[in-house]
Give the backbone structure.
Amino acid sequence: MKVFSLFYAASLALFCINAAASTQWPEGITRKGNDFYEDEVAVEIMRAGAVGMHGYLKVPAEDSYYVLLEGYLARFGVEPVESLAGWPLLRWDRQHVTPEIASRYNDFQINGYPEKKYSNRSIWSLGCLQDSPLRYGPLGEGKYLIIFMANDFVVFSIDLSRIVFFENTRLDDWLPRGDSLRQFESKSSSGEIPYQYLSGILSDTPEIEPGYRGYSKLYFGDFDGDENGDILVWRKLYISRSSEDEVEGFRKIRDEWQHYARDESGEYIPLDTAAGQIQGWLQLNNLTWQKGFPTISECEGEEGQLIPEMHDPLLNDPDVLQ
């Protein structure tokens, strides 16, 4: 059985295969922010029509640049630099939806979940991965772009010209303690705040509900031994504890595991694999929470360290500490 889990070291990601040989998963040539105006290629791409560019890279052995725009991926030629093709980054029809978050949006008539179109809006992302928003595969056979959009992990097949996998790695429906208290005071004229951390989604409503936190880790390899690529997803969902609880932080609602397998076309299809089977694969290969992806921060001053939010003691979950 060939298994590899994903780690980051400096600006490269490594696939570890049976904890032995490894190959690189490079960023290619990626630029973001003010770096564009100091980069001759970026300037040429912008002159050729790349308005609102967030990043670009040149895929090895291809005579073209892939450019990330706002909710849009484009391909530009190299000589001359000109627009060749483009694809809107529309919601993957197999995207996992967390029912608690969907209910919160629906019950209070708030739009936005799940998004119909993915956005690389300026937002603080897990481990600052969005600071280098475009990476290059491969994930087994085929050529893939890895796109970080906010906290979304998006796999775009160059061969198929479409998204073939998606996972949101962070559900962020909570406010820090100070912000929670201020929210409560603005919504209620009396009483004590009922939860340690209030919902962020409901900030602009009169509702007072506990906050949710959720995280996902990804594991890549051939776990079922069929010589075809798999992605295992381990999701965790937490809810704020009450203010009367002597334990500070959050309470785990559940763990869940999902198995995706690459089909003949190159798309990753969710399968009805039993949770126990997926857990068995992870245990057999000694793949803990901290050995999933994402784990290592790329933020300035935190390079090489664990991403704090995903391994937070306030989650009160022993899994995240190993």
Q: What stands out?
A: The radius of gyration is 21 Å. The helical segments are 40-47, 99-107, 177-187, 275-284. Residues 177-187 form the longest helix (11 residues). The chain has a mean pLDDT of 85.
